[in-house]
Amino acid sequence: MTVESTAARKPRRSAGTKSTAGKRTTARKPENSEPELVQLLTPEGKRVKNAEYDAYVDGITPDELRGLYRDMVLTRRFDAEATSLQRQGELGLWASLLGQEAAQIGSGRATREDDYVFPTYREHGVAWCRGVDPTNLLGMFRGVNNGGWDPNGNNFHLYTIVIGSQALHATGYAMGVAKDGADSAVIAYFGDGASSQGDVSEAFNFAAVYNAPVVFFCQNNQWAISESNEKQTRVPLYQRAQGFGFPGVRVDGNDVLASLAVTRWALERARRGEGPALIEAWTYRMGAHTTSDDPSRYRGDEERVAWEAKDPILRLRRYLEASNHADEGFFAELEAESEALGKRVREAVRAMPDPDHFAIFENVYADGHALVDEERAQFAAYQASFADAEGV
Ligand SMILES: Cc1ncc(C[n+]2csc(CCOP(=O)(O)OP(=O)(O)O)c2C)c(N)n1
Ligand SMILES: [Mg+2]
């Protein structure tokens, strides 16, 4: 083994011992230490003070807190239903958000109606906050359409599978918003793995140089399929922003209040013309990458057990109960509402009509294209060949 490859296997330790001798910096925290993050609600459900971010949630009412709880519970219920539907053969694939509810609901509820959201394929909680009907998220995963909703209907772009590309789309859109003189903001979601894509770095630089009103919201769920985030970066991801010339913050992504507060801060400064910000939401993908993945092949159970203790829904429930903001009636009603949502989703998916086989060729280009015409003709001939076989 070469010296280089040994160094590459232990990047943080060697970088830390060399450059931090005699001085402590947050960039070189030793491996396995707790990351520094903005937290307003502890895993035990205790509200902790934060001089910088309290102001963004100070006026929050018990009703709004119950609303955040409801959002997270219903999103988790919808997600579980979609996983079951995949197991029953009703969906081809599903990418679960289990564990990431607080990061998504907190940030999603921070957006304003005129803001524009660019999601990955896992932002079911953000879609919920934007008012996209959850059943519309499932058409693509059933293979009956290529999207399922009008992006301009809720300012929520279509799910994007090409990792990191939506960071550039969001930045371009935000540059347009600024040119229009509007005071809306744009938010781009992506994962820890996406941070290794060139598109994301390009987006950071364009956004910084053009002072674009875009918030980069990275859900660091610790894994990019089977690659741990140790393989994505030598410094905490939020610190990358500094090199591009804008602020970066790490927030407890399992804390819905902190996620709401930090995202409000970032969106408000973007609206004021103060440019981009990066939020790294520190969270965990509790389930498999998708229903096609088996995480037991690359990670141990201890990790999941440790994160279970930080469950985003449980901690808000503890807080609501301890502060007498919710009673048994509220939780029972929500349980019934969750079951009704599951049933509605199930029935809607099963009732989705199969598309016309030629629909795939529609809307590829606004004005049509010779290559698409050729492919359509080839497919028609292929289909016609079955008609012959049936006649035999
Ligand atoms: C450009 C590109 N490369 C590779 C893939 C395959 N791929 C799909 S998901 C994924 C991992 C993404 O990890 P992360 O950004 O952390 O998001 P997460 O799935 O954890 O939410 C990869 C590599 C892809 N879809 N697009
Ligand atoms: Mg990830």
UniProtKB/TrEMBL annotation:
GO biological process per UniProt: branched-chain amino acid catabolic process
Protein name, entry field: Pyruvate dehydrogenase (Acetyl-transferring) E1 component subunit alpha
Key word Lipid biosynthesis present: no
Gene3D superfamilies in alphabetical order: 3.40.50.970
Residues of the Dehydrogenase E1 component domain: 70-351
InterPro entries: Alpha-ketoacid_DH_E1_comp, DH_E1, PdhA/BkdA, THDP-binding
Region (Disordered): 1-36
GO molecular function, one term: oxidoreductase activity, acting on the aldehyde or oxo group of donors, disulfide as acceptor
rRNA-binding is among the record's keywords: no
UniProt entry keywords in alphabetical sequence: Oxidoreductase, Pyruvate, Thiamine pyrophosphate
The encoding gene: pdhA
Cofactor(s) for this UniProt protein: thiamine diphosphate
